[in-house]
């Protein structure tokens, strides 16, 4: 889309002919699928597995950490929603960075978000292979599961975006059903008093054993990077903008459900679990859901949770396959990536971009082959900092857009973020605090070491781009 076309069509969501999006994609994702993509993006292995470590560090105060972080996520999503209703495009994050901050920032954002999903895809397919060992007891090699899952999800993403949406719908349905089921079981124990946990189940467990802040405020703050990691991918709904049937209606509705999703699936679930099982019973590396089921005397719970986290991992890998191809195509359309990434299949999927990304995800299969016990640790550290870069760009671009719109230089969005730009500034400060906390944590610090190296690589490659293709380094709006 040229700069002239942006001015003509920038505020007309759903523009396109023959059911196509503005970038040539087919608008086939319906409201049902967009809603579940939005819900699934906010529920992942960070809740089902990572919360065990966070509970051991913060105790019941983790509930407050999730509530505050959830509010920040809502500010980020409303900022994204304002931008999406101004101009809904599939390469949204890099596209907005390119328009409001300049071509270099669009280049950095596009490639960083692409790398985020490649890395995440590797970690999640590795995790999925590890979860399968629960049933096979290592009788089947871990690398083979990683290969099978990668190939299946790659094939599904090439068939059509509608199939991707259906997979995400059912993956998300499994996660939602599991959490709601856990909440109902815990509510039954607290009110009716069945199961082995009935004798000790009480709401006072939230402040017994050292109080609500048993590890102090510092312990709660140190869990923020774990909490924010759990919310990574919530912004994925923005990547679907170019393929939504009715983005002006479906996207705002999906974004506005963020508060109750976080209130129910994170805050609500943790309140119920920590009321039934004292926080001192949870350990790092053990799912709080598994620990709760065992405390209740429900042995089948471990198998159920293992199936749920398997679907969560596959859902994340599926999202990675989807988003990486779109990001590479957006970069190519703007002269900031190889031109062959622009090609679409007849069904409207970016064939070469998805294939290239899936091939890199096969690195995860190789890692599983040479070091199955350490594969997850090798690649997980970079995901948090690269994922939060997209949030930072969303907030900065929304601040710049709102200033221009208020001056009359750009049309006002039909979905303005309440309280902005102050809410966006607050979210930026919060993310900055999380990054500082990551620097203070020796386990998370490695991701901060990787970020400057990646930034240097992008800077050098951008200089090469300016030399080889000045056109790609001069764009300020999506082409």
From TrEMBL:
<dbReference type="GO" id="GO:0055085">
    <property type="term" value="P:transmembrane transport"/>
</dbReference>
<dbReference type="Pfam" id="PF00324">
    <property type="entry name" value="AA_permease"/>
</dbReference>
<feature type="compositionally biased region" description="Polar residues">
    <location>
        <begin position="1"/>
        <end position="11"/>
    </location>
</feature>
<feature type="transmembrane region" description="Helical">
    <location>
        <begin position="143"/>
        <end position="164"/>
    </location>
</feature>
<feature type="transmembrane region" description="Helical">
    <location>
        <begin position="446"/>
        <end position="465"/>
    </location>
</feature>
<keyword id="KW-0029">Amino-acid transport</keyword>
<protein>
    <submittedName>
        <fullName>Proline-specific permease ProY</fullName>
    </submittedName>
</protein>
<keyword id="KW-1133">Transmembrane helix</keyword>
<feature type="transmembrane region" description="Helical">
    <location>
        <begin position="215"/>
        <end position="237"/>
    </location>
</feature>
<feature type="transmembrane region" description="Helical">
    <location>
        <begin position="100"/>
        <end position="123"/>
    </location>
</feature>
<comment type="similarity">
    <text>Belongs to the amino acid-polyamine-organocation (APC) superfamily. Amino acid transporter (AAT) (TC 2.A.3.1) family.</text>
</comment>
<dbReference type="GO" id="GO:0006865">
    <property type="term" value="P:amino acid transport"/>
</dbReference>
<feature type="transmembrane region" description="Helical">
    <location>
        <begin position="36"/>
        <end position="55"/>
    </location>
</feature>
<keyword id="KW-0472">Membrane</keyword>
<feature type="transmembrane region" description="Helical">
    <location>
        <begin position="378"/>
        <end position="401"/>
    </location>
</feature>
<keyword id="KW-1003">Cell membrane</keyword>
<feature type="transmembrane region" description="Helical">
    <location>
        <begin position="61"/>
        <end position="80"/>
    </location>
</feature>
<keyword id="KW-0812">Transmembrane</keyword>
<feature type="transmembrane region" description="Helical">
    <location>
        <begin position="258"/>
        <end position="277"/>
    </location>
</feature>
<feature type="transmembrane region" description="Helical">
    <location>
        <begin position="351"/>
        <end position="372"/>
    </location>
</feature>
<keyword id="KW-0813">Transport</keyword>
<feature type="transmembrane region" description="Helical">
    <location>
        <begin position="422"/>
        <end position="440"/>
    </location>
</feature>
<feature type="region of interest" description="Disordered">
    <location>
        <begin position="1"/>
        <end position="23"/>
    </location>
</feature>
<dbReference type="InterPro" id="IPR004840">
    <property type="entry name" value="Amino_acid_permease_CS"/>
</dbReference>
<feature type="domain" description="Amino acid permease/ SLC12A">
    <location>
        <begin position="34"/>
        <end position="465"/>
    </location>
</feature>
<feature type="transmembrane region" description="Helical">
    <location>
        <begin position="297"/>
        <end position="317"/>
    </location>
</feature>
<feature type="transmembrane region" description="Helical">
    <location>
        <begin position="176"/>
        <end position="195"/>
    </location>
</feature>
<dbReference type="InterPro" id="IPR004841">
    <property type="entry name" value="AA-permease/SLC12A_dom"/>
</dbReference>
<dbReference type="GO" id="GO:0005886">
    <property type="term" value="C:plasma membrane"/>
</dbReference>
């Amino acid at each position: 889309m040229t700069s002239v076309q942006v001015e003509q069509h920038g505020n007309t969501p759903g523009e396109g002919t023959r059911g196509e999006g503005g970038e040539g994609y087919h608008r086939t994702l319906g409201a049902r699928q967009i809603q579940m993509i939005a819900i699934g993006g906010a529920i992942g292995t960070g809740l089902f597995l990572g919360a065990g470590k966070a509970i051991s560090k913060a105790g019941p105060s983790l509930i407050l950490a999730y509530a505050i972080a959830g509010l920040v996520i809502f500010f980020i999503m409303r900022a994204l929603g304002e931008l999406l209703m101004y101009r809904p495009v599939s390469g949204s994050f890099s596209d907005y960075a390119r328009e409001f901050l300049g071509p270099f920032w669009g280049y950095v954002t596009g490639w960083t978000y692409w790398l985020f999903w490649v890395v995440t895809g590797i970690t999640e397919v590795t995790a999925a292979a590890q979860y399968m060992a629960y049933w096979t007891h290592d009788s089947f090699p871990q690398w083979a599961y990683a290969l099978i899952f990668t190939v299946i999800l790659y094939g599904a993403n090439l068939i059509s975006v509608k199939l991707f949406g259906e997979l995400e719908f059912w993956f998300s349905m499994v996660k939602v059903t599991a959490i709601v089921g856990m909440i109902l079981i815990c509510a039954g124990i607290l009110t009716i008093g069945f199961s082995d946990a009935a004798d000790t189940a009480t709401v006072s467990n939230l402040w017994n054993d050292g109080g609500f802040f048993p590890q102090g405020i510092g312990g709660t703050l140190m869990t923020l990077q774990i909490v924010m990691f759990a919310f990574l991918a919530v912004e994925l709904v923005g990547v679907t903008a170019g393929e939504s049937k009715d983005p002006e209606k479906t996207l705002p509705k999906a974004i506005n459900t963020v508060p109750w999703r976080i209130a129910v699936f994170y805050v609500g679930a943790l309140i119920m679990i920590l009321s039934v099982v004292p926080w001192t019973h949870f350990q790092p590396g053990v799912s709080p859901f598994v620990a709760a089921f065992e405390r209740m005397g429900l042995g089948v719970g471990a198998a159920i949770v293992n199936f749920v986290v398997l679907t969560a991992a596959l859902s994340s890998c599926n999202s990675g396959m989807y988003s990486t191809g779109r990001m590479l195509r957006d970069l190519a359309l703007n002269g900031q990536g190889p031109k062959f990434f622009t090609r679409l299949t007849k069904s409207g999927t970016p064939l070469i971009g998805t294939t290239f990304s899936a091939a890199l995800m096969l690195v995860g299969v190789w890692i599983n082959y040479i070091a199955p016990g350490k594969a997850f640790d090798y690649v997980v550290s970079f995901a948090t900092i690269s994922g939060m870069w997209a949030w930072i760009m969303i907030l900065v671009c929304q601040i710049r857009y709102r200033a221009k719109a208020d001056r009359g230089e750009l049309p006002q969005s039909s979905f303005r973020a309440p309280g902005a730009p102050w809410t966006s500034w607050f979210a930026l400060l919060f993310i900055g605090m999380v990054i500082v906390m990551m620097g203070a944590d020796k386990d998370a610090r490695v991701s901060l070491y990787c970020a400057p190296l990646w930034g240097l690589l992008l800077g050098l490659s951008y200089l090469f781009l300016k030399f080889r293709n000045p056109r790609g380094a001069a764009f300020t709006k999506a082409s």
